[in-house]
Amino acid sequence: MSYHGDVHVGGRPDVRELAHLIITKVAVGPMNNNAYLLRCRATDEQLLIDAAADAPVLLETVGERLATVVTTHRHPDHWGALAEVVAATGARTAAGRFDAEGIPVPTDLPLADGDTLRVGEVGLTARHLVGHTPGSIALVYDDPEGHPHVFTGDCLFPGGVGNTWKDPAAFASLLDDVTTKLFDVLPDESWVYPGHGKDTTLGAERPHLAEWRERGW
Fold first, then answer.
1. CA-CA-CA-CA torsion for 127, 2, 48, 101, nearest 10 degrees?
2. Burial class of 215 by CB neighbour count within 10 A (0 to 12, 13 to 18, 19+)
3. Which pTM was predicted?
4. Longest C-alpha distance within the chain, in Å?
5. Beta-strand pair 116-119/33-40
6. Contact 143/151 with Cβ under 8 angstroms?
7. 163-177, pLDDT tens digit by residue?
């Protein structure tokens, strides 16, 4: 069965198999957060994006070994199970350097815009997107044998950018960063894996950028 990305709390994860990377998406917690487990095919090294909640579910998904846990931003629904997952696996932690102070588990790898984070032989590029929080990051995997894959946390969803709480400056910052660092440099085929809910593509969202800017959210 092909990957669809439509997962629900208590339901089965969905798995996408790429040439060099396997992506497992699972929904956890009362806010229906998405967590993503990335496994390098060549080395079996694994990286988890957002240990959001339901540590037993995440640990069952991970299995025996986990090298890194990345937290996309400081909001508690994205790190609720971080301490338990790290304690159980010994994984190192990574987060955007401007959000690290807001995450109660110490960050081993503070990430700046453009930094490369590796899972085995696969490289992920961190993109700093300001507005939802000061240090939110997206992770971009530019598949050499396919299209890019973008893990956006709460910065980009189907239908718009993340919540900026009616702050015009924060909204403009987030939309500007998403536009220049994602839409302007990545193709329409780029697959977007958000922090909650269903996936989308940049191509599906690109026609609506002007509409989002006009509506202000």
1. 40
2. exposed
3. 0.98
4. 48
5. unpaired
6. no
7. 999 999 999 999 999
Distance CA 9, CA 157 (A): 18
pLDDT at 166: 96
Residue 1 in this model has a pLDDT that exceeds 90: no
| CA gap 129, 177 in Å, rounded | 5
Pick from 91, 23, 21, 19: nearest CA to 55: 91
- Angstrom distance (rounded) from CA 153 to CA 72: 5
Is residue 141 within 8 Å of 184, Cβ to Cβ? no
**Tokens 């806010």, located at residue:** 31
CA distances (Å), 60 to each of 15, 34, 196, 207, in order? 14, 15, 20, 39
| pLDDT over 90 (residue 64) | no
Crossing angle, helix 82-89 and helix 55-62, to 10 degrees? 40
Q: Which amino acid is at 210?
A: A
pLDDT tens profile 97-142: 999 999 999 999 999 999 999 999 999 999 999 999 999 999 999 9
Is there a contact between 9 and 58 (Cβ–Cβ < 8 Å)? no
For 176, the enclosing helix (H) or strand (E) is helix 168-178
Residue 99 to residues 47, 76, 137, 147: CA-CA distances in angstroms? 19, 12, 9, 29
C-alpha angle 85-90-95 in degrees, rounded to nearest 5: 70
